[in-house]
Amino acid sequence: MLKLQNSLFLLSLLCFCFVFISEASVHEYNGQKFVSKGNAFVVHGGSEGIYSSFADPRNVTAIGGDSYIRFEKITFRRPKVFSNFSSRSIQAIVFEVEDRETIGGSAYGGQRAVCCTADLAKLGVCLEGEVIHRPSTENPSWPKVFGISFNGEDEVTTLPSKSIQISKTGMYNLYFIHCDLNVKDLTVEGKTVWKNPTGYLPGRMAPLMNFYGFMSLAFVILGIFWFSQYARFWREVLPLQNCITSVITLGMLEMTLWYFDYAEFNESGIRPVGITTWAVTFGTIKRTISWIIILMVSMGYGVVRPTLGGLTSKVIMLGATFFLASEVLELVENAGAVSDLSGKARLFLVLPVAILDAFFILWIFTSLSATLNKLQSRRMVVKLDIYRKFTNALAVAVIVSVGWICYELYFKSNDVYNEQWQNAWIIPAFWQVLSFSLLCVICVLWAPSQNSMRYAYSEEVSEDFDKDDTTLTLIKPSLTPSKDFRSASEARSVQGSNGASNGDVEEDKTE
């Protein structure tokens, strides 16, 4: 009797998809070679989450069209030196991830195999040289297995065109497998088309199209608020506020491009490399400028110091390095096939970006600490208040980020077979929401207004901030009150007089 058991072999077979999976719903095969896995030779044809085309208790909303996997001109080619005999069947096997235990087996509790061995053939449970499979308990017609053989001296054989209807929502896997040890250097050509009810966008990516649509709208609303304030008080605009304007503009462009990228992908089944590249580039520029702006604000640029002095070149160098590292990572993950990378190669690209992120955070909080200490020692109450709010917002963002990273690690470690693919879109979406929320906080704190100049740089306190201070040592309070402190006291003394200026009244209200 055939004894099926949990197997590391099948796990490695499913993980093997990360070598050849294409980031498109039209999976093209351009001479991929079969690779030995256990006692079988395998080419991974694709893995995608597909929604049912019929009413499904778990998916009542996806009934707008047909879902299918269609095979088009799938051709197998063998070298001429191995074309002097008829071969065993080359099989295509399609299965839903929950039915993974129906593939493969073992004789007498031994090592699990995908191809039927002589011992298993003696038990009468399979034919020697073919893929072992048994019907699913939920749907006896699955998994779908069909194949073709080389006859005589044929060098090429073509799989008949076939379309498989998807009647159950799930993560589907396609493998091309053969078990003939005499057939070497076998390659596969052609394509398969994977379609969801609403289009060609893979199921795990489909929610992102609507998400980027909503994010585009959110950036438009934020832009209306910001640009209206900018137009009203353009005479009072600070250099820092010009930088924030550029970030909002880049954000609107990025979200819009991502939406059209996914819309085109959904329509054609092939990812538009041009739109994707522009979306990635705008996004990388936005993140780079955002980091630099936060770092400059933390150092007091435009508020308590006119320039960054000797730190300018260091900030530019760090920003340029971050841009290059992020651009390469994002292009590989989006414009190309994500899963073409092995784990070590992906780690090689992710690590530099993570290290640079950590360096930015460390430098930002070190600079903020020094700036807050100086503002407090100088008794610049108005500027100190806004910097404290800014510091609290950053601290909350960092804490939430660390918590989400822990959740992401937990999510991925407990979803080895991608069974939670319907919720996977939340992970990249969260980072977009978090960065947008932080941008909104910054826009509220530094929105252009008639009192913007209260936060502007003052020459009377420039001497202490022009120095390249990175330590947290407190500056001794000055015996003479600072300009901010004096202006607040003077405003209180003339609060009831008719000659009080509007600026003084606003300062007093702030205090």
- The number of helical elements comes to 13
Q: Which stretches are low in confidence, meaning pLDDT under 50 for 5 or more residues running? A: 1-24, 59-64, 337-343, 460-511
Strand content: 5-15%
Structural class designation: alpha+beta
Q: Nearest-angstrom radius of gyration?
A: 31 Å
The profile of the biggest β sheet is: 5 strands, antiparallel
| Strand runs, count | 10
What's the quaternary structure here? single chain
Summarize the amount of helix as a percent range: 40-55%
Structural shape = elongated
Polypeptide structure, described:
- There is one protein chain.
- It contains 13 helices and ten strands.
- The radius of gyration is 31 Å and the shape is elongated.
- The protein is an alpha+beta fold and 511 residues long.
- The strands form two sheets. Strands 1, 4, 7, 8 and 10 form a five-stranded antiparallel sheet that branches. A five-stranded antiparallel sheet has the order 2-3-9-5-6.
- Helices cover 47% and strands 14% of the residues.
- 34% of the residues are buried.
- Helix 6 packs antiparallel against helix 7 and helix 8 packs antiparallel against helix 9.
